[in-house]
Every structure is written in structure tokens, then in C-alpha cells.
Write a structure and sequence with these properties.
Elements lengths: L4 E4 L9 H19 L7 H14 L7 H15 L6 H17 L8 H11 L2 E5 L16 E4 H4 L6 H11 L8 E5 L2 H10 L3 E5 L12 E4 L5 H9 L3
Helix pairs in contact: 1-4, 2-3, 3-4
Bound molecules: magnesium ion.
The site of magnesium ion has 7 residues, from loops.
Length: about 240
């Protein structure tokens, strides 16, 4: 058999996302505190708890992490006694700064060359539940289609997301001829498997789940070319 298309998760697949979030969380919250001095009343951990609660109460926006932050921040600003239109303006500036920090990522040293090489042979798509817009990053130029869950109104693990991505990559790509690459056991490996695709599961957290047929465990995305060669039966 031959692999005809590849879809990619990005966070913790093409870069280590932990340092990005560790910077982003306190930094944009501190920026807002410098403006409205709210953080003593609503500390950072309370902001994170409220986001969790908001997501659980609003399944319609749960997949859109930026929108969840926007709604919760706006509520916090209003509680501080800030009137409109200033409340919305401050919220939008905090979100703008948060998104700037969100895109300060450092890809794994292998990611650029890997995607450059793969893009010559395969149509490539991004499927992310996160709020990084790959169009804003140099790595994004290697992809033929980019799907952010928030924009689609549906997110992984829905098979619809995977099928939409494959449809965007070509008319004749059946799920079993495509492979999805990602680190989440539930949202990448099992989700792609459930959509009928093969999956390269990047086990960054050393979870060592037992893989069903068609799901292949890798330690790092740099091991992907060897797996593809094996699947393609390349000499
Ligand atoms: Mg990921």
C-alpha cells in the first residue's frame, strides 16, 4: 500500500508546547492586571478554573479556546466595574497579546526539514483543536490545508474533522490511504483510527498504550519518515 496524504496535529507534535503556555498564562493576565488591577480579586488559578467551568457550561464554544478566554476575561473586566465600550476594548487587547504569545513557538529542530521533504511527496494538512494559526508561522507554508477546530465549529475527536481535511487534500483520498500524526491518544491516535485513517501516535508522555492495528507508536516526529517508508514498502 501507499500513503497518499498526511494530516498533522501541531502542539506537542511539531514543537514542545509546555514552555509556550507557561509563558502565555501569567503574561497576558499580568498585562490585564497592569490595566485594571483585578488579579488580587481573581487570581490566575481562579481565571483558569472559570475557563474550565465556562467550557463545561457552553459546549457550543468549548472547542474554541480563544473564545472561552475572551468571554471569561470580559466577565472579569466587567466585574471590576469597567463600563463598555472600554471593557470590550481591554478584553480584545488582552486576547491580542495572548495570541501574539501563543505564536512564539520554537519548532523541534527536525520539523522544518521534515515538512519540507514530506510536502514534496504528499499533500499535508493541519488539524488542531488549539488556537495557533499555522498561517502565521513559517512552518505553515508546507501545508495545503489548515483546519482549526474553533473555526470549523467541530473538533477532534470527531471523524468529520478528519474527513473534511482529507476532502480538502484531494478527491480520491480514502481514509485508509492517509495517516494522521499527533500526540494525543484520544484526540489524535484513537480519533484518526475511528475515522478510518492510520495514525502515527507521538507518545511524548510515555503512556505506552496498546495500539490497535493501524496505529503506530513513535517517540518523536523525527521517526515519521522511517514509519512511512515501512508502510509504503519502500526498499
Ligand atoms: Mg497535540
Amino acid at each position: 500500500m501507499t500513503i497518499k496524504a498526511i494530516t498533522f496535529d501541531i502542539d506537542d507534535t511539531l514543537w514542545d508546547n509546555a514552555p509556550v503556555m507557561a509563558r502565555l498564562e501569567p503574561a497576558h493576565y499580568q498585562w490585564l492586571d497592569d490595566q485594571i488591577h483585578h488579579a488580587q480579586r481573581v487570581p490566575l488559578d481562579e481565571y483558569m478554573r472559570r475557563r474550565q467551568a465556562f467550557s463545561e457550561a457552553h459546549p457550543d464554544v468549548r472547542g474554541d479556546h480563544t473564545e472561552v478566554r475572551r468571554r471569561v476575561l470580559h466577565q472579569i473586566v466587567r466585574e471590576q466595574g469597567i463600563e463598555e465600550p472600554l471593557a470590550t476594548q481591554l478584553t480584545e487587547r488582552a486576547i491580542h497579546y495572548m495570541l501574539a504569545l501563543r505564536h512564539q513557538i520554537e519548532p523541534y529542530e527536525e520539523s522544518e526539514a521534515l515538512l519540507e521533504t514530506l510536502s514534496k511527496r504528499y499533500p499535508l494538512a493541519v488539524i488542531t483543536n488549539g488556537n495557533v494559526d499555522m498561517r502565521r508561522l513559517p512552518l505553515g507554508r508546507h501545508f495545503d490545508a489548515i483546519f482549526n477546530a474553533g473555526e470549523l465549529g467541530m473538533s477532534k475527536p470527531s471523524p468529520k474533522v478528519f474527513h473534511a481535511a482529507l476532502a480538502a487534500l484531494g478527491d480520491d483520498i480514502r481514509p485508509e490511504d492517509a495517516i494522521h500524526v499527533g500526540d494525543s491518544w484520544a484526540h489524535d491516535a484513537l480519533a484518526a483510527h475511528g475515522a478510518g485513517m492510520k495514525a502515527a501516535w507521538i507518545d511524548v508522555h510515555d503512556q505506552h498504550h496498546e495500539c490497535p492495528e493501524g496505529v503506530y507508536r513513535l517517540n518523536h516526529v523525527r521517526e515519521l519518515p522511517a514509519l512511512l517508508a515501512q508502510l509504503n514498502g519502500d526498499a
